[in-house]
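re: ur question from yesterday

yeah so i grabbed the chain u mentioned. its 394 aa long if i counted rite. heres the sequnce exactly as i have it in my notes:
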Amino acid sequence: MTAAVSFRPGSVRDAAGGLVALTLATFVAITTELVPVGLLPQISTDLEVTESVAGLLVTVYAFMVAALAIPLTLGTRRLPRKGLLLVTLVAYTASNVLVGIAPSFGLVAAGRAVGGVAHALFFSLSIGYASRLVLPQVTGRALALVTAGASAGLVLGVPLSTALGTAIGWRNGFLVLAAGCALATVLVATLLPAVSGDDSPHADHTRTDRRRRLGIVSTTNTLTYLAQYTVYTYVSVILLATGLTETAVGPVLLGLGAVGLVGTAYAAVSLDRFPRRGTLVVHAVMALGLLALGLAFPSRAGVLVAAAVWSGAFGAMASVFQTAAIRTRGASPDVIGALVNSTANIGIGGGAALGALVLVGPGLGALPYVGAGLLVASLVVVVVARRSFPTLPE
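ran it thru and got these structure tokens back, copy pasting raw so excuse formatting
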């Protein structure tokens, strides 16, 4: 059963300690999920598999999350939230250790599976947790701050682990990440207050409408992540094809991730004031960035500029969908978190798989166009579904 707690939500300043802890945990979680992206060439060479097969380390992980997020969240809904969150961080640590020492691709995949189970619960918990730490009128800002941890995973985690893996070996890169996960576990145990998990919305005449709106937000979330990871899973391959050296990929990903923080900052400013306008802007900019990437490829300068635009817009997306989903009040925060987590990972895994098919079919240059087409479909849903993406916070 969930233990009784006396914590009461407050302002972002009041919840600063807990939000910082969640941000750090999100950083190591997203880095764990995506670290193979920057190390695909090294992993495929060392384990003697193709880059498209190595990309399955992202695909299988994501599909595990998609399949398990909702069942695990429902099955653990009566357990203490903080304790459960700590268990996921311990599992992340174990996952990275296993990958770092595994001698074969099969055992590497097994280590990744451990992380996939942890991820199925972690983001479901963290989204609901962040919304419980603050008052409803500042939910957008709180979720944007926690999402900054995911952006930092792209800004610092993936690029630095890529650079580190290139310098000292990809296995050692995973072991260093395991140490980071262990540190995050200690800090979360220290800084994060315990909260109640018993806050499901009351059933009333609006329930059907609220659930429909949540379904639309979740579907759009899937499309957006599908667009992103069709391209981003193979971004290191794209960069190498422009003539960049392997050692330059890490620093370039670092720069692209830094631009992503601009999008996260924009989300923090816009989602509590004009959420619909902000959602439309970041979708349009991301679509244009992906289209420009396709047109510029394989020009190195053009690809880097277009990728910066694309990355900057995507930096806002996690906050956009988490906030929109929470505000539908279509389920409890944890179940909403599970749904957002699951649909995002359907997009991540589906994007990695779709990208692999494009690589062996039309080829590398077609990836940005496929991503842009999917993003336009997501934008159309946002334009049409005004109730799911309202002009003002509800």
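noticed a couple things. The chain has a mean pLDDT of 86. also DSSP finds 15 helices and no strands in the chain.
anyway ttyl
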